[in-house]
Amino acid sequence: CANDVLAQGAQPLFFMDYYATGKLNKSVALKVIEGIAEGCKQSGCALIGGETAEMPGIYKKNKFDLAGFSCGIVSKKKILKKENVKKGDIIIAIPSSGIHSNGYSLVRNILKKNKLPTQIKKNLLNPTKVYVNEILNLNKKKLINSAANITGGGIIENVVRSIPDNLTANIDLSKIKVQKIFSWLKSKNISDKEMLRTFNCGVGFCIIAKRENLKKIKKYFSKQFYPYEIGFISKNSKKLNLYNKLKW
Question: In this model, does residue 236 exceed pLDDT 90?
């Protein structure tokens, strides 16, 4: 939620959650709230309340549903609008911390038939990286033109939302630094197309900026989330142009 707000250049202000279950398990609910609180700390927003519902006729034993939303604020001058993007700008990938929040239904289906290697087991439950501090600082310095949170639909659906209709996002798939967890999932007979639409494949967030700003942009990130160029903006009839292949 915080990263979605951030894609508009906004500072997340507050978050509210909705937790529904058949019968409340206090220890589980407490862990969930602790996780939400940690996410709020990382994004600099307040957890101002929420709703907890017990519905035994709807949810099976030990099952729960979690939802939430965030509101943010940004001045009109600093909104990251797609109209800011120009021909010649570059597309910059910021690494993800893992799977983030998309594709777990497919992951669970794969795990029913396959054992996950020990060395990448921890990657499966890595919390989503919150990019708030880095992106807000970049926006404050006017170093970026547009941004995309890589969620459902992956790179191919999210980046195109961040550019005007008369421009094309050219993405070199071979430049994407694919993480081990995605290489393992790919090895379970999943097509490249499905991988790109379901998972972030190692790219958690994208920014579009002038080429001359790349060096300055890199200074705002730690080694683990060091940004790198994966494409450029041009004028073409197509909204998206993918070339080369992902290196699994």
Answer: no
- Predicted confidence (pLDDT) per residue in 14-68, tens digit: 999 999 999 999 999 999 999 999 999 999 999 998 899 999 999 998 899 999 9
- Contacts of the segment 75-80: beta carbons below 8 A, 24+ positions apart: 78/9, 78/139, 78/140, 79/8, 79/9, 79/10, 80/7, 80/8, 80/9, 80/139, 80/144, 80/145, 80/146, 80/147, 80/162
Distance, first Cα to last Cα, the chain? 29
3-state DSSP assignment of residue 138? helix
Q: Which residues pair with 71 in a beta bridge?
A: 14
Beta strands 11-21 and 46-54 are: parallel
Exposed, middle or buried, 44 (CB in 10 Å: 0-12/13-18/19+)? middle
Query: What is the rounded CA–CA span in Å between residue 173 and residue 214?
Result: 19
Residue at token pair 């970026």? 144
- Report yes or no: 99 and 181 within 8 Å, Cβ to Cβ: yes
Q: Do 85 and 208 meet the contact criterion of CB atoms below 8 Å apart? A: yes
**Is pLDDT of 231 > 90?**
yes
CA separation for the pair 225, 123 (Å, rounded)? 15
The CA R_g of the chain, rounded to the nearest whole Å, is 19
90 backbone φψ class: left, alpha, beta (φ>0; ψ -120 to 50): beta
